[in-house]
Amino acid sequence: MENELIPLTVIGMMSGSSLDGMDICVCKFIPHQDGSISHEIIAADTIEYEAEWIDHLNNALHFSVSDYFSFVADYSYYIGIMAKDFIDVYDVDVDLISSHGHTLDHRPQDGISIQIGDPGVIAALTHIDTVADFRVQDVTLGGQGAPIIPIAEKVLWPEIKSFINLGGIANISIHSDESIIAWDTIPCNQVLNDQAMILGAEYDENGDWAKEGTYHDGLADAWDQLEYFGLDFPKSLDNNWIKEVYLPIISDLRVAPKDALHTACHHIAIQIKKDLQRNAQRLPNKIMLTGGGAHNKYLVHCIEKQLLSIGIEIIIPSEVVVNYKEAVMTALLGYLHAMDIPSTIPSVTGADRPTIAGKYCKG
C-alpha cells in the first residue's frame, strides 16, 4: 500500500562542482489531489567554502587512505553543523534534511559515484531525519547516476519542457509525453572560474573578461576532438576528467586566460546547440536557463545567439530559481524518498529500472 502523501518542510543541501559553497534551501512541499506537488521556498542561502575546504575537496582523492577517511568524517561533521546553524539562524521548523553532499569521484562505467557527507552524522547533529547519497542505486543498476535534476523539473515546473542548467557542468533536459532525456553536455563554470582565478577573482563577473578576449581556434578544435562530445546519451561528466583532461589543454596550448574565457563561452554555446540538434526529436520553442552561469551576461549572450539561430527562445526565471534550483531538487529528492516515490528516470540515466534514491537515517 502506498504512503499517503503529506506536506513536509525539507532542507535541501547541494554542493556543486564549481566549489563556490553549499547551497541550502528550505522548501515546503504540498501534495494535491490531482497528483501534483507544489512547493514554496521559505529560505535560501549559499554558505561559501573557506579556502582550506576548497583545497581539500579538490585534492581529497590524492590523500593517504587514513587522511582521506579523516577528511570525509570532518566534512560530514562540517555540513551537519552547517545545517544546524542554518536552522537556528533562519528559525525554521524542518521535517527532513536532504543532502546531496559533494561529488568526489564519478565513474559510472566502473560502478562508482561517491558523494561525501554522511546522513547519519547530519541526523545525529541536528536530531532531524536525513536522507543522502542519491546516485549509488542508479549506478548499480547500470545507469549514469546523472543527471538527477529532471525529476524536479517534471514535478515542480511541469509547464516547462526543456531546461539548461549552467553549473560547474552544463546539462540539458528535454521532456516529452513519451519520455525524458537529459545529459551532461559540457564543462561550464568549472572552466570559467578556473581561468578567472588566474586573473585574481573567483569568477568572471558578467563575463567581462571573456568579452575582452579573442577566439582561439586551436583550443576549440582540441576540445572538439575529445571523445565525450561524440558520445550519445545517457552520458555524464566526471569532475576529475575535467581537471585532468579538459583544463590542461588550455595550459598545454599556452592560451591566455581572457582568450580561454572567450573561447569557452562560445564553445559552451556551440556545443549546447549541437547537442540539442542531435538529440532532440523535436527542437523546443523555449528553454529555461538556470545555474550560476545564468549570471554571466556574455555566456548567456553567446548561448542566446546560437539558440535563436535554430528558433529557440531562452527563458530566465526568478533569481531564487536560477541560484537554488539544484538545492530545491535535492529537497524534492528527500521528500520523494520519504513518500516512497521513485525519483530516478531510466530514460535519462540508462538504468534498468527507477529507484527510490537515497539513504535514510533517523534523527
Q: Which CATH-level-2 architecture of the largest domain?
A: 2-Layer Sandwich
Beta-strand content: 15-25%
Count of DSSP-assigned helices: 14
**Category from helices, strands and their pairing:** alpha/beta
Count every beta strand, where a strand is a DSSP E run of 2 or more residues: 12
Number of domains: 2
Q: Indicate the overall shape.
A: globular
CATH class of the largest domain: Alpha Beta
* Helix content, binned percent: 40-55%
User: Can you give the mean pLDDT?
Assistant: 95
Q: What is the CATH topology classification name of the largest domain?
A: Nucleotidyltransferase, domain 5
Q: Separation of termini?
A: 25 Å
Low-pLDDT runs of 5+ residues are: none
The main pleated sheet reads as: 7 strands, mixed
Element pattern in H and E: EEEHHEEHEHHEEEHHHHHHEHEHHE
Radius of gyration: 20 Å
